[in-house]
TrEMBL record, chain A:
The chain crosses the membrane at residues 21-40, 73-92, 104-126, 132-151, 185-206, 226-247. It is a multi-pass membrane protein. It is found in: Cell membrane. Signal peptide: none annotated. Pfam families: BPD_transp_1 (PF00528). One of its GO terms (cellular component) is plasma membrane. The keyword Transmembrane applies. This is ABC transporter permease. Keywords: Cell membrane, Membrane, Transmembrane, Transmembrane helix, Transport. InterPro entries: MetI-like, MetI-like_sf. Residues 66-246 form the ABC transmembrane type-1 domain.
TrEMBL record, chain B:
PANTHER family: ALIPHATIC SULFONATES IMPORT ATP-BINDING PROTEIN SSUB, TAURINE IMPORT ATP-BINDING PROTEIN-RELATED. This is ABC transporter ATP-binding protein. It comes from Paractinoplanes toevensis. InterPro entries: AAA+_ATPase, ABC_transporter-like_ATP-bd, ABC_transporter-like_CS, ABC_transporter_ATP-bind, P-loop_NTPase. Signal peptide: none annotated. The keyword Transport applies.
């Protein structure tokens, strides 16, 4: 409408799109500059050009492996979120259950997941399931903790309100507490997203069959550092895409929070 | 409509029991507007929460419409100091919350929502989210949400105290009009003498902890009343001065003094 509005829209596009892109360009430029300036052997640190070359040598193969890893991440993440939400709701509903279950959950979370990978191999063999289980193990905890924090953070005035209306526990839960918890749930989801990718890669590196983790494990064996970097870049890109996807869903589901 | 009969409230504090309210007895008639005034910490809100059934008296009992209050009643509506709106619900959906919780049909209440929005000047904002509204408008929504219950009694806990002075006066005048239209029994807790004088039929002045009724002051000024310019300035000034001295002298009195 007015000049002022147009100006603010341009500046919003700049802060939301321009600045992130600029950040990436500067980082890749610095990476390139350093490898070129110090004549670093691509065996140690390949330049961005080497990585792109490697990718272009076998793009279908690498994209196929990315897709494999992504599927494991998505399935595992979905299970972790569903499980995490159910557990968090149960724990928030009953103090007794919470007191009993919390040390166990914290203990499970504290176990180094890499150490579990060989066991998962013994239990489940090769294939997708041990990787998916690894994704779930690595990413469920933040979902639980943040959801519980959200469910127990209902402000006093809203609690008094539902009490004064004689709302049932279920009504209070569905109409007030759950929605109130959503922003916190999304904090957990954003923490869990990269963890899910890490989980899939741990599973694939320790127990390689397919997927980008297996590519990295294989490139180590064949001294193909640029290939490992290509796989890493693809993982990073996957992570960024997933993160912004979650942030996008948050914008849709929690508009009152994003607006502030 | 409301009988408060020898009600006391003692909380268990960390360093022993804290007596918040001692032996308050009051009768509030149907359609009466009673304001409860006192310094902060005198137990005004505690008294209100006991009438609401949110808090059980340590001694004595409260009756609303002849029945002893043991839990919140759906014909008693509360308005809090904070608007307590659900941030994800539009203005009209927030107002509909009690209807949903009571399991009533929303369609039956649409017309009433329209009326309430119109009375409070919110018609143009019905689809807005709370964070898009000013504090005064948010408190208006909260008032509408209480009124949709068609309450026999409205309990208001310093509802305007977080607002700026002008908005406060505006809302107080509006509330007076609503009270005159609907004849709802209202108990209104405040620490503002000005609000008490504008709104109340009677003012219960509470002493400091433990809260006791120091005096019940009648406000015989005819309605509708307004701030500042009116024909009863002398009376307003007189009653205000009386309330003021009652509240001020409070600290010098022994804690056991009664009415």
């Amino acid at each position: 409408m007015t000049d002022f509005d147009a100006g603010s829209r341009t500046s919003r596009v700049w802060t939301n799109v321009g600045l992130p892109i600029l950040g990436v360009v500067i980082t890749v430029g610095a990476w390139w500059g350093i490898t070129a300036a110090f004549h670093i052997d691509p065996f140690y640190v390949p330049s961005p050009a080497d990585v792109v070359d490697t990718f272009l040598r076998t793009p279908e193969f690498l994209l196929q492996e990315t897709w494999t890893t992504l599927q494991r991440v998505l399935i595992g993440f979905a299970i972790a979120v569903a499980l995490g939400l159910v557990i968090a709701v149960t724990l928030a509903a009953s103090r007794t259950v919470e007191r009993m279950a919390m040390p166990i959950l914290a203990a499970i979370n504290a176990v180094p997941k890499v150490a579990l990978a060989p066991l998962l191999l013994v239990w489940m063999g090769f294939g997708d399931s041990p990787k998916i289980v690894m994704v779930v193990l690595v990413s469920f905890f933040p979902v639980i903790v943040s959801t519980m924090a959200g469910l127990t953070s209902t402000p006093d005035d809203l609690q008094e309100l539902t009490r004064s209306l004689k709302a049932s526990w279920w009504q209070t839960f569905v109409k007030v507490r759950l929605t109130w918890a959503l922003p916190q749930v999304f904090v957990g989801l954003k923490v869990a997203t990269p963890l899910a990718i890490i989980g899939a890669v741990i599973g694939e590196v320790v127990n390689p069959d397919r997927g980008l983790g297996s590519v990295i494990a294989g490139s180590g064996a064949s001294n193909d550092t640029p290939l490992a970097f290509a796989a890493l870049v693809l993982l990073a890109v996957t992570g960024v895409v997933l993160f912004y996807l979650v942030a996008g869903i948050e914008r849709l589901l929690v508009p009152w929070r994003v607006a502030k | 409509m409301i009988t408060i009969d020898g009600v006391s409230q003692t909380f268990k504090g960390k360093s022993g029991p804290v007596e918040a309210i001692r032996d308050i007895s009051l009768t509030i008639g149907e359609g009466e507007f009673l304001t409860v005034i006192g310094r902060s910490g005198c137990g005004k809100s505690t008294l209100l929460r006991m009438i609401a059934g949110l808090l059980k008296p340590t001694k004595g009992e409260v009756r609303v419409a002849g029945e002893v209050v043991r839990e919140p009643r759906r014909d008693v509506a509360m308005v809090f100091q904070k608007p307590a709106l659900l941030p994800w619900r539009s203005v009209e959906d927030n107002i509909m919350l009690p209807v949903e919780i009571f399991g009533r049909r929303k369609a039956d209440h649409r017309a009433q929502v329209d009326r309430l929005l119109e009375t409070t000047g919110l018609t143009g904002f019905r689809k807005r989210l709370p964070h898009e509204l000013s504090g005064g408008m948010q408190q208006r929504v909260s008032l509408c949400r209480a009124l949709i219950q068609n309450p026999k009694v409205m309990l208001m806990d310093e509802p305007f105290s977080a607002l700026d002075a002008l908005t406060r006066e505006e809302l107080a005048v509006e509330l007076q009009r609503i009270h005159m239209d609907l004849g709802t029994t209202i108990v209104f807790v405040t620490h503002s003498i000005q609000e008490a004088v504008l709104l109340a039929d009677r003012v219960a002045v509470l002493s400091s902890r433990p809260g006791q009724v120091r005096r019940l002051v009648e406000i015989p000024i005819p309605r509708p009343r307004s701030f500042g310019h009116n024909a009863h300035l002398d009376q307003v000034a007189g009653v205000s001065a009386e309330l003021h001295s009652l509240l001020l002298s409070d600290t010098h009195l022994p804690k056991t003094s009664t009415l």
